[in-house]
Amino acid sequence: MQTRKKYIFLTFLAFWLLLFFFGGEQLRRFAFFPRRNAPARRSWPRWADRTLLPSFAEPRELQGDEDAAQPSPRARRAARLSTSQGSRCRMESCFDASRCREHGFKVFTYPRERGEPVSESYGKILASIESSRYYTPRPEEACLFVLGIDTLDRDPLSAHYVRSVEQKIRAFPLWNSGRNHLIFNLYAGTWPNYTEELGFDIGHAMLAKASFYSENFRPGFDVSIPLFPREHPQRGGQSGWLHRDSVPPKKKYLLVFKGKRYLTGIGSGTRNALHHIHNGRDIVSLTTCRHGKDWERHKDTRCDQDNMDYERFDYQELLHNSTFCIVPRGRRLGSFRFLEALQAACIPVLLSDGWELPFSEAIDWGKAAVVGSERLLLQIPSAIRCIRPERVLAFQQQTQFLWDAYFSSVDKIVHTTLEIIRDRLLPHRSRSRVLWNTLPGGLLALPDFSTHLGDFPFYYLQHGSSPTDKFTALLRAAPPLGSLSQPTVRLIQAVSRSQYCAQILVLWSCEKPPPPRGTWPQITVPLTIIQGRTKLSDRFFPYAAIRTDAVLSLDEDTSLSTSEVDFAFVVWRSFPERIVGFSAWSHFWDPEQKRWGYTSRWTNKLSIVLTTAAFYHRYPSGWGGPCAVVRLRPALLVLRRYYHSLFTEYLPAGLRELVDSLAACEDILMNLLVAAVTKLPPIKVTQWKQHKEAASQPEKGTAAGGTRRFSQQQDCLNQLADWFGSMPLVSSQLRLDPVLFKDQVSVLRKKYRHLEKP
User: Buried b / exposed e across 699-738, counting CB within 10 Å, b at 16+?
Assistant: First the structure.
C-alpha cells in the first residue's frame, strides 16, 4: 500500500515538472495568477523604481494613499515636466547671455497677429514693456523676447483661452525652442484638479507666473508674480491706506476673512475649516456657498447660516478695521486678496501650502506677511496674538512700502520682473536684498550707479555716513549772442568765494563757441567749460568731471550771494536726499479744469523748488553722453566715468524729449522724480529779499511770452503726472532760515550776515 502511494506521488510530481518545463510559457499567459493577488506594496528602493518604472507611477505614489481629487505635489510636478523640455533649466543652461552684451538688457515684443484676441490684462503687460526703457523695436538688439500671443489664461474653459499656441510659436523664426523668451501666465489648469499645465511646451522659456507651486518653480530662472485683477491700473495706482511714518490707530478686529467657500474639489478643505476660528468678536471669518451654478445641489447644513452672516459685514470695512487678514488658497494657490490686503496695510496671513510667493527672489516676505500652514489653522489666532505691537507696526509699514514699490500697478509688476532677470545676468552688479526691501526700492536704486549702500543718499543715516563737504556748481549758459554777460560773471565770482565750492562747471549750450580764456573771470577754484547740446535736459547729466556728491544747479541769470550759497549747502548736507533751493512753486488740483496746475505766488505752501538755483545729490541724474570738455585749469583731470542713473536709466527717452520741447519742464520733471523716490517735499531756504522781488517782477513786453511759457509748464506738469500714474509731489510749509535771522540782535552775532543786507 505504501509502495502504491509512493508511485502515485512520484507520477504526479513528474507530471508537474514536465508541465512546467514544456508548458510554463503558456501557463503564464492565463489568468491563473491575477495581478491583484501579487504583493501590493512594499518598500521599493528609489533606484529600483526609477529603473523599472520610468513611465508609470513615481515611488511616492506607490507608497502612499493620495486623494484622487487632489493631485499630490509629485503628480503636479510630473504633469508639468511631461509638457516641458526645459524642466531643469537654469540661466547658465537655457539662456543665451551673449545676446545681452552688445546692446544691453533690451526686450522685444512680438507683433500682434490680426484677429488674435488679447485680453485687457495682457495688453497692459505689453504696453508696460513697449513704453519702458527696456523696449527695442529691433529683434536683433533684443536680449529677451515676449510673445504677442496672450498666454495669461490657460484654462480651456475660459473665454480668453487661445488655442493652438504651440503650433503658432513653433512657426516663429525667433522662438529657438523658447530660449531667451519670457512667458507671462496668471491662470493655469482647469477643473477639477487645476494643475499647472499651460497646454503647450514652453521649451527653454522662462515663466513669469502667478500661483506658482514651489515644486514646479525653477529657482534662479522662473519669476513668481502676483495674481492681479483686470482692473489693476496700468501705471501709478492708488496709494496705500497707511501714510508713511504714521502710527495706525488700534483696529477693531484682530483677524478677518470674507470670501467664497468651496463645497467640493481642490481648495475646499482650507476654506471649509475657517469657521472654526470665528469668535464674532475680534476674529471674524465669513464664508458663503452662494456662488457657481449648482451650489444649492451641493450645499451643506452650514450654508444658509453662513450666507446670512456673510451679508452682515462689508468687505472694505473689514479690511480697513483689521490688523491681520487671512489669505487662504482658492482653486489655485494665489488670490486677489493678497494684493488687497497689502494695499490696506492689513498684514496677510497666508494659508496656501507650497505657494512660491511673488518676487520671493528679491522680497523678504518675513517682514511683511505671516506664512501659516493649512494643517495648523487652529494655531493661527494664538500665534498672531503673540506678535509684539512694535513688530505689528513694522509689518504694516512694510506692506505699504512693498505695495507702492512693486505691486500698485501693472508697470511696477512687469518692471520688477524684468529687473530681477536683469540682475541675474550681472550678478556682480546685482542689487542686494537690502536695496530691494528698503526705501526707495529696487526699481529706483539702480545698480549702474552703485551697489554699495553708502553711496546712496537714502542710506546715509543708516550707515552713519555723510556726503562730501564740497559741492560742484553746474551753470548752464545759453547766451543768445555767445558772449558772457555781467550777471553771469558776478554769479561765478560769488559762487567761487564759497568755502565749500570745489569747482565750477559751465555747460555751454550755445551753437557759438565759448568765449576765449581771457574773458572768463579769474577765480580760485577750477573752472571747466563743457560743450553741451542745446537741450534743457543736459543740465541733469552727471558729467565725468563731477566728483562731489552735491551739485549746485544754476542758470546764467540767477543772482546769489556767497552767504546764500553757503547756508543752502549746509542745509543740504542735513537733507542730502532732497532738493534744497531758493525759488519755489506750489501745485494744486483744479476741479473745474480737471487737471493739475501750479502757482508761483507767495504762499505758505511749496512742492517744487526751481533747479535754476538748487542743490541736489548727483544720484538722480544720468549719463550725459559724449561732450567736448574745454579745460581752463590744467590741474583738473577729467575722467570719462559716466554714471547711468535715474534720469537716463529710469526715465524713458520720451520724457526727456518732452522736457526739451517745453519751457522750464526740466525743473518739474526733476522735482517729480525726486519726490517719487523719497516721498518727501523739497526744502526752501532763505533768499535775499531784493533777489526775490527782482525774480518775481516780469519784464516789460513779455506778457505774451510769459503766458505761453506758463501754459507749457501746465501742460508739462499734467503730462508728467500722467506718466507717473499719480501726482508724486508732496507739499510742505517748511522754510529754513539761519539762526538769529531777522532777530533784533547785533549783526556780529550772526553767521550769515550778508543775507540781511539791503
Answer: eeeeeeeeeeebeebbebbbbbbebbbbbbbbebeeebeb
For residue 3, what is its C-alpha cell? 509502495
CA count, 13 A, side-chain hemisphere, 328: 28
Distances (CA, A) of 98 to 430, 432, 446, 642, 649: 18, 24, 22, 23, 21
The 10s digit of each residue's pLDDT in 188-199 is 988 877 888 899
Cell numbers 479690511 correspond to 319
Q: What pLDDT does 629 receive?
A: 38
Query: Which residue in 721, 631, 623 sits closest to 668, CA to CA?
Result: 721
Query: How far is C-alpha 551 from the geometric centre of its chain's CA atoms?
Result: 28
Contact between 193 and 70 under an 8 Å Cβ cutoff? The reply is yes
Maximal C-alpha separation, the chain? 147
For residues 135 and 355, what is the distance between their CA atoms, to the nearest angstrom? 31
φ, ψ at 433 (rounded to 5°): -65, -25
Question: How far apart are alpha carbons 405 and 602 in whole angstroms?
Answer: 34
Round to whole Å and give the CA distance between 83 and 301: 42
What gap in Å lies between CA 647 and CA 652, rounded to an integer? 9
Note if 65 is an active site residue: no
Average pLDDT value for residue range 524-551 = 82
Per-residue pLDDT tens for 632-660?
A: 332 222 222 222 367 767 788 788 888 88
What CA–CA distance (Å, rounded) separates 266 from 195?
A: 10
Phi and psi angles of residue 658, each rounded to the nearest 5 degrees, phi first: -65, -40
Helix (H) or strand (E) holding 644, with range, is none
Q: Taking CA 576 as the corner, what is the angle to CA 498 and CA 434, rounded to the nearest 5 degrees?
A: 150
| pLDDT score for 719 | 92
Contact 543, 530 (CB under 8 A): yes
Do residues 289 and 307 make contact, with C-beta atoms less than 8 angstroms apart? yes
664: left (phi over 0), alpha (psi -120 to 50) or beta: left
Exactly one of 306, 309, 566, 667 is catalytic; name it.
667
